[in-house]
Amino acid sequence: MESIASILRNAGLKATPARLFVLRLLAETTKPLSHAEIEALARKEADAPPDRVTLYRVLEALTAAGLATKAVDRRGVARFSARDTHRRHERHVHFHCLGCGGVFCLTAPPPKPPRLPKGFRLEAAEFDVKGTCAQCAAKGKSGA
Amino acid sequence: MESIASILRNAGLKATPARLFVLRLLAETTKPLSHAEIEALARKEADAPPDRVTLYRVLEALTAAGLATKAVDRRGVARFSARDTHRRHERHVHFHCLGCGGVFCLTAPPPKPPRLPKGFRLEAAEFDVKGTCAQCAAKGKSGA
DNA sequence: TTTGCAAATGCAACATGATTGCATTTGCAA
DNA sequence: TTGCAAATGCAATCATGTTGCATTTGCAAA
After folding, report:
1. Quick check: ipTM above 0.90?
2. Which of B50, B99, B119, B135 is deepest in the core (most CB within 10 A)?
3. Chain B partners of A95 at a C-beta cutoff of 8 Å?
4. Contacts of A1 (CB under 8 A, 6+ apart)
């Protein structure tokens, strides 16, 4: 298996305590976590809880390196989850939960890009499916 | 025709200057506007620019009354649009030009939303197509 | 037309999430 | 072991949004 530290170094990031803690936390957690939640957990569990700002920068670095994904929930709060590197290149549609910011991979194939007016050049086509995931719907976090 | 004031009163809201200004602005604008953008426009155009907080409350009231739609953009900022404007664009595929930032409505029908796992609720399925528009392509201004 | 009052507004203060500047510390490769 | 670019801690600042409260106002009833 690959250690958290080597995952970081393979991505070109130094393996610092704050990064190790956050990446392990994201990998162990199914739901996307906000900065505030991560900070609270760090205060409880980490040996030397990192600074608030460091956590922001760690999350930024992990996202930039492709190890985490950032999404915004209904309240406008950024939420982060570990990125599943294995399925990165498969073609599939993502479902974005507006309640928790979670991203779920659907089995449906992506739709074909439409015809464009003359002269237009296609570069990317993204099918954005949004709604409420089962867990948030059950909690009643559904309505806006 | 129905005046902005009577639209407000029919929705059970008093027709105050701030509400008239905001609702008319949203109705005239295709792109969803943030609170900051609305405030800036109000400062320039309104006779007696409403307070920051009043604008927040106006937007809240319009949304609650069903006259406006609230959505959170990628940066986590709330954006508002008149409800019928929002409806008109719901069933369109949009082309985003990476060169000039322009948005074009395509004639192609949107793809059917995919099947979701049990308990998931669909709220929106948006097909966003990105590339270079004819004008930018001619100028060689390909995106980013 | 006048008037009463619930609703709307303005203002100040506060809350929360996120960013920036800078001095100090540290991971890690040479 | 050591040099240094990169990462961290800390303080300050910004952006977005909310709350409490005194004052004003839309509008419907008299």
Report:
1. no
2. B50
3. 116, 120
4. none
